[in-house]
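hiii, so i know i said id send this last week but things got crazy w the move. better late than never?? heres the sequnce for the chain we talked about at the cafe, plus the structure i predicted for it. fair warning i was half asleep when i ran it
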Amino acid sequence: MKYDEIYKKELLESVIPFWEKNSIDKEKGGFVTCLDREGNVFDTDKFMWLQGRQVWTFAMLYNQVEAREQWLNIAEHGATFMKEYGRDEYGDWYFSLTRDGSPLVQPYNIFSDCFAAMGFGALYKANPKDEYADIARTTFERILARRDNPKGKYNKAYPGTRSLKNFALPMILSNLSLEIEHILDKQLVDDLLHNVIHEVMDVFYHPESGLILENVNLDGSFSDTFDGRLLNPGHTIEAMWFIMDLAVRINDKALLDKTIQIALNALEKGWDKIHGGILYFLDIKDKPPLQLEWDQKLWWVHAEALVCMAKAWQLTGNMQCYQWFEKLHEYTWNHFRDEQFGEWFGYLNRQGQPLLTLKGGKWKGCFHVPRALYQVWKTLENKAVPLNNVQAV
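okay and structure toks below
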């Protein structure tokens, strides 16, 4: 079986059926994401960023794979819950709710907004109701208004002492801008993409190492602190496939080449030479990381790395990228997949054994795995560069 067929089968016969069967709250609305290995619910709190992500996933499947009424119904089921309960009086999206929709955690986290905009933008493509476009557009406008201080009054940092810029928001904007460009002004998108490319590829880029930093000083300079030295190889690799898509869009070969080199640098730096897999956090100076979970192996990191290497190989024929794809595929298929009950484990210890056998929770939902499977499937479907034409690098 070819890689594209393997990934298609995993998506449509294992992962999506798991969420269809277990996550839809038919009584209270929305989705439950705290699911154990077999799909049983172990907690009913609802996290708004995971609600938006799952709306996006099923709307994307409807738009890109097949116009199955069931998929559209699931997306709209989640969107209805989000519309009714998800926002405060300013239009900002809460972080979490109770099962029946009462607010639990304030809208301190702008990523709830990012994935609400992404979900409603995809849903508008599937069912072009003005309401869906309005929610996506107004949410995106709020994101831009808050981007310089995303947490606002919920920011716990003392002002003016050590002010840092974080990589996560410009990274997500590089993808979100394309996801909802069909409802945005073209000039706004073009200007934003130019700005985001600069932020990701210049401001957070560390030339001495060829890597991307998670935090920099407000002027873009290096901060020799725990936060300033922090590396998250998964974030870097995910961002690089976002920027690859932009490089293709604007036909910038130099930008494409830089993204691939940074991704390869991140893989080389982040790969566990002893046990295999990609380490979660590192310190750029190889000092002890602050994060105690630094040596865990996470599902989303490996899923995004597979997408990145598949795209890099398909676009350039770079044999090093193909070799990394095969290495990542072997590790991921042997350690994260749950052939018995479907879906993937999320958290492995350094040795590659499941730390938790859950399939979803506060951070893991119906998003990274299905998106990655779809992306790899479509990237490699009838498009793979013939091996005898690939030039080794």
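btw Residues 204 and 213 are 5 Å apart (CA to CA). thought thatd interest u
miss u guys!!
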